[in-house]
Amino acid sequence: MRSAVDNQHYFPPLYGGVECGECEMASTCHSRYKYQRDRRDFTYTSGRCPRLPDRRGFVDKSQKKLYAETFPLVHAERGDESLALSLSIPGEKRLKKVYLKKNGYWYFRERAEGRTYIRRRISFNWFKSMKDVLDYMSLYDADYCLFQAVIEDGFF
Q1: What is the pLDDT of residue 155?
Q2: Are 18 and 50 in contact (CB under 8 A)?
Q3: What residue segments make up the domains of the chain, in order of their start?
Q4: What's the pTM?
Q5: Is residue 90 a contact partner of residue 72, using CB atoms and an 8 Å limit?
Q6: DSSP code of 75?
Q7: 3-state secondary structure of 86
Q8: What is the mean pLDDT of residues 49-67?
Q9: For tag attachment on the chain, is the N or C end more exposed, with fewer CB atoms within 10 Å?
Q10: Going by C-beta distance under 8 Å and a sequence separation of 6 or more, which residues neighbour residue 27?
Q11: Which residues are CB-contacts of 40 (< 8 A; sequence separation ≥ 6)?
Q12: pLDDT tens digits for range 75-119
């Protein structure tokens, strides 16, 4: 299900085919009729859709700002022995720190009325632990990755 923000701009799903007819830049896209346009392991110059993120979560440089304004994104940065996760939400300037509960739920804190905070659950990819994120980043030899996040409706 797409939200009102998603309907403004078309970005292809992370898995599955690219629907070039839904994209507003289809007439000027250099990848429109190329065979590999829905493959995340190809580069933009090889024909991958410039709006489809690669394996590390990055879209073409010309589409980065629009991508960040369309989806909530989890930024994962690997340090020497640690992993820092933060969440960017469209329309908000500050990044929010992402935490992991012992039972495998990811969340961020959001200010409620007064001085209280509530926890909002998020999910991204299939990750259930910090080790899963680090293994994924090691697989692609990356120190920094972006992941599309889904902010759940409920609080806990």
Answers
A1: 66
A2: no
A3: 20-56, 73-155
A4: 0.84
A5: yes
A6: E
A7: strand
A8: 92
A9: N
A10: none
A11: 14, 48, 52, 53, 54, 55
A12: 999 988 889 999 999 999 999 999 999 888 999 999 888 888 899
